[in-house]
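user: can you give me the structure for this one chain? tokens are fine.
assistant: on it. calling the predictor now.
[tool input]
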Amino acid sequence: MTNNEIAKIIENFLSEQYKRIRELDSIPGTGGKIRDISGKITETLVEMIWNFLAENHPEVNAEIFVGSEKPYKVINPNGHFIEESVDRHCYINGKLVLAIECKTYLDKCYMQRADSDFDLMKSYDNNFKGIIVSIENSIADNSYNFFMDRGKIDNVYYLATGKRNSSKLKKICYHEERIQHELILTLINDIEKFFN
């Protein structure tokens, strides 16, 4: 399967999820269900991308785990350790190569938390990449640049165009026209580099 075909599958998945959310939005008392669905969208699509790429690269042992189910052990020079995790941990041939924080939207507090998690995870081992995948951008440019300048987050991928506006959520969120094929394809192409 080509990366372009994978991107189309991801677009269709997002479109289906957005349709479900819009349908639920018209029913009173479904806010919790909507939050649950929207919260799982990015995690699911990251797993889909990783698994499709793994099928395309049978020469490597590619695995993806929920971070809390396989936390990364950070060991200091004194032998003391903590276990740290983000949403998804991706392994190639038994080695962590990519840690992914998944967000429906990325704002300052979410980016700050990811920055802190990646900082801890990379404090004694910087041989993997830490990225954020978010459907929407909701962070001020200055805050975004501050965290990127720290160098703990290797990249951020947004799958929808424009900025999230919480005062106009019903008008701009969960509409397929904001999902961009090229943004999804860039994410897929960049993740595939870990398989080579």
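assistant: here you go. The chain has one domain: 3-195. Residues 31-56 form the longest helix (26 residues).
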